[in-house]
Amino acid sequence: MDLRSAMKKVPSYRWFLWAAFLAAGLFFVIQMGVLPGGHAGQVPRGFDLLESLMHHIRNDYLEERDPVRTAEGTYRGLVNSLDPLSAYLPKELAAAYKARTGRETEPGILVLKRYAAFPQVAAVVPGSPAEAAGIKIGDILSAIGGRNTLSMSLAEVNLLIQGSGPEPVKLRFLRNNDTLDLDVARAFLFPEPYVFERAAGKPAVLRVRRFIPSLVDELKRSVVPSLKGRATPLVLDLRSCQDGDLEEARKLANLFVRAADAGHFEGRGGVKDVVSLTDEPALGAVPVVIWVDAGTAGPAELAAGILQEIRKVKIVGFATSGLVGRKTLFPLDDGSAVLLTSGVFALPSGRKLWDDGLIPDVAIPIDKLDEKTYLEKTLPLLPKL
């Protein structure tokens, strides 16, 4: 059976949707001027190109293809190519995204992913199953559960490595010339969204793991009273922190500084939504240093960037990923969904925390990102204990 015959067995409405989206996708490609082998102004316009393409798929491709699956690939490529946060989520992953509770289990890797590139491990959570399995920063994640990750979005990757229990996930990594196939257990890594530690002769450490709603209210009850009015310096540890709510990140920054204009989210057409820190900062007099790494992203970058620019807090660690953006989920009629970036954050100076990320004031090489090195680099920046 040739592809033309196979098309006859597909319900007409599905075939129409497939053709319509291909047309939209091709229109996007033409308008962007990035058709392979061509340049803007040198390709056929309108449906002539679509008709030519469909003719070749029906008559000249080497094997029959399911048009609905082919269309899904078109959706994925069109949306995933926009930026690292945008994603097309098929039905099962759209349902998983909407059902998230914040108590998902995971192996303990934080990855970065750009379009048309494999995900790369940016951080490994200490004490996690991933660390026990020997996964290292820089490893390339090429498959999850036997599924190639090259065409996936960052959102898809994160949803697929998560689970609801300790069941292992099959991961394939590339490291130099080696291929590593690992069954890595999952665990609920952060039972609490933060950890606060104080030890004699050392700065206090506030480790924020997830920016859950009500995080700052809890900090005001349990942490702020022990720091307010004291000279004890504080380390705000935002390493490997990339989940949570941007509003909670704003509130965290407001604990340390007050500003009518702490930056803005810039949306379509240049529309700006100003971020203000209006409350009196409860910890405005506390000496602070911030720790970051390549796994620091999103809300954590927003809080750190505001404090670095407005209060001149020093940042120690490794450059961050630059993923401070607002995301909006748009459900589709078939149960799938698209996740689109609707705004990106810029500081009052105009510096965008998008793509470039945060540059530490004191940089640590990627092979020295251990607690001892962080502390050695931090102590000279704080008042003597």
Describe this structure in words.
By secondary structure, the protein is an alpha/beta fold. It has 3 domains: 3-81, no CATH class; 104-184, PDZ domain (Pdz3 Domain, Roll); 194-381, 2-enoyl-CoA Hydratase, Chain A, domain 1, CATH 3.90.226. The chain is 30% helix and 22% strand. The chain contains 12 helices and 19 strands. It has a 6-stranded mixed beta sheet with strand order 8-9-11-15-16-19. Strands 1, 13, 14, 17 and 18 form a 5-stranded antiparallel beta sheet that branches. Strands 5-4-6-7 form a 4-stranded antiparallel beta sheet, covered by helices on one side. The longest helix is centred in the N-terminal third of the chain and has 21 residues, at 12-32. The radius of gyration is 24 Å and the shape is globular. The N and C termini lie far apart (79 Å). The relative contact order is 0.10. The model is unreliable at 1-20 and 26-44 (pLDDT under 50).
